[in-house]
Amino acid sequence: MISDRIGLMATGLVMAALSGLLVAQEPSGAKEKATEKKVESKSSDDPVPPPPPPPSASKKPTTTKVAPSKSQPAAVALPNAASAQAALVTIQTALGQNSEWDGIQITSVRYENDQDQLLLVAEGRLSEGRLRSKAGKVCESAMQELFASANGVIPVPKLDQLKVIRPAPREAATIFDEGLTHYRKGNYEAASREITRAIVENPFNLGYKYWLVVVEVAAGHDDQARRLLRPLILRRTQAKSAKQTDEYTEVQRRLESVQGAIRQKMNRLEEELLRESVAK
Predict the structure, then answer these.
(1) Cβ(273)–Cβ(226) under 8 Å?
(2) Which of 146, 175, 216, 235 could form a disulfide with 97 if both were Cys (CB 3.0 to 4.6 A apart)?
(3) Which residues sit opposite 239 in a β-bridge?
């Protein structure tokens, strides 16, 4: 009997344990069913909240360095071709009236713009390198005369293109004789070209310069003849030595072969320029 009771008690304990285990598992299943029902109860049209932004790391704001803007210099307007020609005439006149500057030959000028600087680029020849500084002063004076009154930018002379070439008197004499041959034949254009070449090779011969005036007068180029003769007249009126006076006398002797209408026109032109020089 006692053993039967013990067996029944053991069996009861086992059944109780199994019953407790089933009871403990029911809430978990019920919870899952409740969650499913809650999800099903939400409408498909309900807005879905966006996910929270990820935590941003605190960084020190970076500042971009901006280079200071450099203001570009305004380009200086180049003077026109007429201004360049006026500068050339002014420079040649200044050089031609001084015998000490015969070794400076400036045959052409042009303007160039170097950033914010206006340049006067001169081309030609120098008989000696030491004359470059003198040529620069003459050009500077001409620029002051032409541009200062207009209150504009005064060009800076650039003379590095003036080549130093020694005079060649013998070669010049040969070229001059060829020019005279053309003149006597009435080929004034060829005569002007050759006598100009002779002056380039020997700028110290005053007679060549006067003969070039004669050729231009014969060709009817009155303005060109006046431009070439003006510095020679100023040179004569400013003569400070007997040597310069004798030089002009020798030129006149060589021009005795020029007669007729050409000689008369030469004389009138000289008188006009002499009066102008005295008036100044």
Answers:
(1) yes
(2) 235
(3) none
* CATH 3.30.310 correct for 169-279: no
Q: What does the domain layout of the chain look like in residue ranges?
A: 81-164, 169-279
β-bridge pairing 117-126 and 156-158: parallel
Closest C-alpha to 215, from 188, 185, 181, 184: 188
Q: How far apart are CA 274 and CA 280, in angstroms?
A: 10
The answer to whether 131 and 104 have CB atoms below 8 angstroms apart is: yes
The two tokens of residue 22 are: 């089933």
Task: Quote the CA–CA distance of 217 and 139 in Å, as a whole number.
Answer: 28
pLDDT by 10s per residue, the chain, length 280: 444 444 444 444 444 443 443 334 444 444 444 444 444 444 444 455 555 555 554 455 554 454 544 544 556 678 889 999 999 999 999 999 998 999 999 999 999 998 888 999 999 999 999 999 999 999 999 999 998 766 678 999 999 999 999 999 999 999 999 999 999 999 999 999 999 999 999 999 999 999 999 999 999 999 999 999 999 999 888 876 667 778 888 888 989 999 999 999 999 999 999 998 887 6
How is 138-178 classified by DSSP, letter by letter?
Answer: HHHHHHHHHHGGGT-PPPEEE-TTEEE----HHHHHHHHHH
Count the Cβ atoms, other than its own, within 10 Å of residue 182.
18
Give the three-state DSSP class for 111: strand
Contact between 121 and 141 under an 8 Å Cβ cutoff? The reply is no
CATH class of 81-164: alpha beta
